[in-house]
Amino acid sequence: MKHLDELVARYPALAPCQPAVEAAFRTLTESWAAGGKLLVCGNGGSAADADHIVGELMKGYLSPRPLAEEVRARLCAADPQLGPVLAQKLQAALPAINLAAASALGTAFGNDVSAELFFAQAALGYGRKGDVLMGISTSGKAANVRAALCAARANGLKTIGLTGRSGGTMAGLCDVIIRVPADHTFEVQELHLPVYHCLCAMAEAHFFP
Questions:
Q1: Reported pTM
Q2: For residues 89 and 86, what is the distance between their CA atoms, to the nearest angstrom?
């Protein structure tokens, strides 16, 4: 795979992660092909990474993503003036949601029930069988990410973990876990970015060649 080969060429330290990245790619593309979506969660810098991933997936990343003709036709039929503008400017998306972005739900659930279980509540509410949840934790020990993975699995979602070297306590809750070869938080985050950029590029190339 071109993008995966390029990832390892640019970041040789990530060579041991290649099989896991490929497995994550297969898990994601199978879900999207069947009409599923990706849920992503993490804390702090990992929450920002989750937002970054969603931004790359929900619009064109490396390639244009023109809408399918049937979608363009429906937009034009919906409004003769606005529809053609939307048909020209909107782009095809790979559906993804950052659970950390739901601030009203998060603060309400955290205040009323448990802040540690907010991601689990969101995963249970948004997730449907066949979807995927990606939990990002540099240590692999974030309790709220682990709870989300557990809730997702119980609800029929596939689970992907993006962690540091050890995998932490969430490793057993992940169908696929990508453990980048670093231990310090900032070093793990520095390697997470090229990994998820690669996954986004691979997915885009698969669905929008």
A1: 0.96
A2: 5
**Confidence at residue 85, expressed as pLDDT on a 0 to 100 scale:** 97
Which is it for the CA torsion 172, 190, 203, 95, positive or negative?
positive
Q: Which amino acid is at 78?
A: A
* Rounded Cα–Cα distance for residues 121 and 132 (Å): 15
Domain definitions of the chain by residue range: 2-58+93-207, 64-92
Degrees, nearest 5: CA angle 161-162-163: 110
Element (H, E) at 23: helix 18-33
Q: Give the pLDDT band (50/70/90) at residue 53.
A: very high
**8 Å CB contact between 38 and 94:** yes
pLDDT of residue 206: 97
Sheet containing 176-179, strands listed edge to edge, beginning at the edge strand earlier in sequence: 96-98, 38-41, 132-136, 158-163, 176-179
**Which fold is adopted by the domain 2-58+93-207?**
Rossmann fold (3.40.50)
Inter-CA distances, 115 with 38, 71, 122, 184, Å: 22, 40, 12, 25
